[in-house]
Model the fold of this input.
Amino acid sequence: MAADLLLPLLFCGILCWGAVQGVDVFAAFRTGAARGLTAAGEILPSLIALVTAVTMLRASGALELLCSVFAPATEQLGLPGELLPMALLRPVSGSGALALFEDILTRFGPDSFIGRTASVLMGSTETTFYTIALYFGATKVRNTRHCLPAALLADLAGICLSAAAVGLFLGR
Done:
């Protein structure tokens, strides 16, 4: 019951605080909404390009080709081959990786080694390209310099160590 009232109370509290401070709340809301639409318009081309690239990657069979190339290395690291498509897609597309994650949990179960490793992998990696396109596009940062290599290295660490962490703490 209290949780149902939280959002309306917060909204009313903000309106009252603005009124007490002498702020034209509606004008401030309109200004913020206009800035949000402007930011969305600036970000949209990057998002469209990213969605197109992910769709082409999956439809062309390039994802399966990459999986077959990287499969021997990931097996040496202890990462199950069933997780490789999700691991490769995760830095590019959160929704694509989430669909693969859901399929993995349905096929193997959430308490299996593969299900647990997939859960840790999803939690310890980021949709790097989406995040960079979205936030750097919104702030008009053009020189990403070391950001992309560092973020991809962090994703690689999350991918490689997810199976090791599950094996260490939860067992196979």
In short: Residues 25-60 form the longest helix (36 residues). Residues 39-170 form one domain. The mean pLDDT is 83. Residues 125 and 154 are 7 Å apart (CA to CA).
